[in-house]
Hints:
The chain is α/β, with parallel strands linked by helices. The chain contains seven helices and nine strands. The chain has a single domain, classed as Rossmann fold, CATH 3.40.50. The strands form two sheets. It has a five-stranded parallel beta sheet. A four-stranded antiparallel beta sheet has the order 2-1-4-5, with helices on one face. A hairpin with a 2-residue loop joins β4 and β5. The structure holds adenosine-5'-triphosphate (ATP). Residues 8-236 form the ABC transporter domain.
Amino acid sequence: MSQATSLLALDEVVFAWPGESHPAIHIPHLSIKAASHTFIHGPSGCGKSTLLSLIAGVISAQQGRISFMGQDCAALSAAQRDQLRADHIGYVFQQFNLLPYLSVLENVALACQFSKLRKQRALSRSASVLEEARRLLAHLQLPDKQLQQPVGRLSIGQQQRVAAARAMIGSPELIIADEPTSALDKTNREHFMNLLMAELKHCDSSLLLVSHDQDLAQRFQQVVDLPALNLGGAHEPA
Ligand SMILES: Nc1ncnc2c1ncn2[C@@H]1O[C@H](COP(=O)(O)OP(=O)(O)OP(=O)(O)O)[C@@H](O)[C@H]1O
């Protein structure tokens, strides 16, 4: 990787939604190191999800450079970006995005179907992908009897732990979590964050978590504040 320890780097990144005259995002510089924990905080509508979509390559910046694992993302084809994402990024979404007709184990194992690399890594730890899913879910304290059930039968807190296991299987370099605790009460939020942080130590992944919940900040080495968009639209991280 270039930039020695930088897993992800954004430089002078500007993005405006189509038809908008003011940018939703202007990031002069943001760097995320390997195996580090970064918290992006800001009020509703400040651009957190937009920033994550830029980093994930779902949308493209009009200006600036985003590099991930030493590669300039704009120089990659759409197919190359898709593969980079599947191999090296795990996601935990606000609404989990689990497939309700699959079992808990199958939902977790699914991430390895889109990435040979993550499958190989999972197999380097366990005898099969399903076994690795089982191991991760045990660490995240999912009761054994629920592993074969459709995810729809789980509580919200349990579904969120399944989503975390799916993001972490095959040890992607970066875990992106978009408001992962917003559906949880305070006790479950603390429990989820404790389990997530403990498991991250084992897989050496970097965590990039966005939330409006400032209470989470103390757990992170790097905190970036995205202020609310002012009337001029553009903002820079504090
Ligand atoms: N697909 C889109 N097309 C046009 N504008 C959009 C789109 N998605 C988001 N925006 C606008 O971009 C700005 C930032 O939205 P974004 O969803 O990134 O904020 P957020 O900080 O993630 O909000 P929340 O915390 O409520 O999820 C908002 O003004 C929003 O209306």
